[in-house]
Amino acid sequence: MSSDLNLIDVCCAVPEVHLADCQKNREEIYKLIKENRDSAIIVFPELSLTGYTCGDLFFQSSLIGAARDNLLRLADQTKSIRSLIAVGLPISFKGKLYNCACLFQQGKILAVIPKTHIPENREYYEKRWFSSGKDIDTEIDLGGPVPFTSKLLLYDGMDREFMLGVELCEDLWAPDPPSTRLALSGAVCILNLSASNETIAKDYYRTQLIENQSARLNCAYLYASSGYGESTQDLVFSGDAVIAEKGVILAKSERFVTRSFSLSAQIDLDLLLNDRRVQSSFELKDFGYKEIPFKLYKSKDLKRKYAKHPFIPEEGEGRDRTSREIIDIQTMGLGSRVKKLGDTKMVVGVSGGLDSTLSLLIARNVCDKFGLDPKNILAVTMPGFGTTDRTYTNALELIDLIGATRYEIPISDAVSLHFRDIGQNPEKHDATYENAQARERTQILMDLANKEGGIVATYNGDHMSMYGVNAGVPKTLIRHLIRYYARENPQYEDLLEDILNTPVSPELLPPDKDGKIAQKTEEKVGPYELHDFFLYSFLRNAYAPEKIYAIACDVFEGDYSPEEILKWLRVFYRRFFSQQFKRSTLPDGPKVGSVSLSPRGDWRMPTDADAEEFLKNLEKVEASITN
Length: 627
Description:
By secondary structure, this protein is α/β, with parallel strands linked by helices. It contains 20 helices and 21 strands.
């Protein structure tokens, strides 16, 4: 994999602390640097060269001098290491002492950033020793002039898209964290050198702060706090380390470890940049910060794990809650439309497939939620040339279980008459043969809705539906929701399980000689799990085709070959671009997730856009496979 993946290896390192022994602390820090030398960025805790709880020893010039000397020694030791390194130490300037982060790379000290917010409450009394660096903007001598200011950003000298800012411990807890202005100045990565002691539930609150700040700022946040060896006089330090990325915890350390340790993760620059581009309220501002270049070494290997099924809620205690929420959103969306129209009837076409099954379940939920008789649901099954006994039986059984009003309207005779009218050979199983059946079903649903004073609640291929209750639900998520519904409602379980195990098909071609489904959608468009993965990566993260391919090869290793993934990715791009005319006329329907294709909201695309530029990017991928 090439650095075009825009992935960056980062590390939070927590050394064992030797209070007031700068040499031993330097040695512990150096060991961790060597162990993590492949990381592009390594951040250490606050005052890591001295220890945080040195108390009045910070007034001793010998400790201040030792910290400075060991910083210079550490920078010299790491000349051959390409990582950008951040360590903490006290810096004396014009008779005042500052709690600082020092950043250096390959032997060169790049900047010293003083802490802005100095705590002076309860167990914290830093103002006894340290001054705020809020208004400091100058240079100091550390083997040469070095910027000394909190108003500073570092940027990748090869690409200004990556900018980095630093804050220290209390800065994050303040009402106006420096990281906010740093992000609004362009920083997509924030380092926090911290020394946060433990009290009951403080870890949970601290993690929430980091998680939320990374979400608000659309940034990566690297947090390293003091660990084993800090004073236990009154305080206990757990060595907490957290790496977050726009509201998601990528990695979190085990606390109370009795040794030096490190925590690593891989941040995705494309992910961060795309969210900032999309979020119109994220406006860059000029706060007059200094900007200093450094060399950012991007990863050549894909190490982080991406979700195989990004539309499906992650496993854990929140999975059922999220599933219930999605169903509630769909129920409220359809129910609000039904109530607005005066408790109108809901017309649902039921095929025994996934989409119509979920639509019918949601319609029943609407009845339960809004106190309507399930007979208000007009459930219509319309067997045709391709209908199999399995889907037909499942459709009828589901309608009866729901308690809906059942309509059974075969379409074969009407479609055959239509074929005669237009001169279509019924033995020619082309697009006309297939679409005539779909349109006949649409006509029945629409006309029945008019006759009964109802609303069509299912989505159809010609986009004539009155309300697309499943419009925001991708195929993999539909499967998951039906499975969740079955688990929560055991009376449906066996039937819904059989529906889930039925191959996805429009059933517009005759069954095979065994009476089974002959036309399988996934054989034409590709596996839905691949399709939805491509869709999410393309729409939500705006990844380039090569990056989608590379991640898919890693995520689906053992499931599909690289050649299969490339084949279906090509199909995805061609179909996505060629079918935009359908999305331009999408009916109303509830948005349930961060990815939506509604032309009125999330996705605006010209109908005549061409996929060729995207497909060209896959040519070199194909060449690499061939070679």
